[in-house]
Amino acid sequence: MAEVAKEYVLDSFALIAHLENEKRGAFVSVILKEAQDSEDITLYMSAINLGEVYYITMRERGEEKAEEVLSLIKLLPIQFIEPDMDLTLKAAKLKAKYSAAYADCFAASLAIEKGVPVITGDPEFKDMEKEVNVKWI
Fold it and tell me: Which of 11, 15, 38, 120 has its CA at 20 to 30 Å from residue 50's CA atom?
């Protein structure tokens, strides 16, 4: 029997955990490796969440490090999704209902749109679990 394809949305928390070799990033590292080695796993990330990783890195380590990290991220097997009007409004509706950060609402709305889990360890997703499938790290 053929293996069923797996799809996930990564939020910035998950990608940063991977990039910083945090214990919680271990699952992310495994799933990135599997996505690199197989066409059975597809990973998505909103461009908004990519921007979040960039600004957090820049704020904490400077622009040069942020550019270096961005270059590394571009090599990862992640499909970056630029939000259109529909996704933006879905994120805005989630933001109106929950106290989560606006960028988190983009990851959540992308996961809802794709019908796949969002990988995160960010507690702000706890309230949104009624609407989004969360794979906790």
Answer: 38
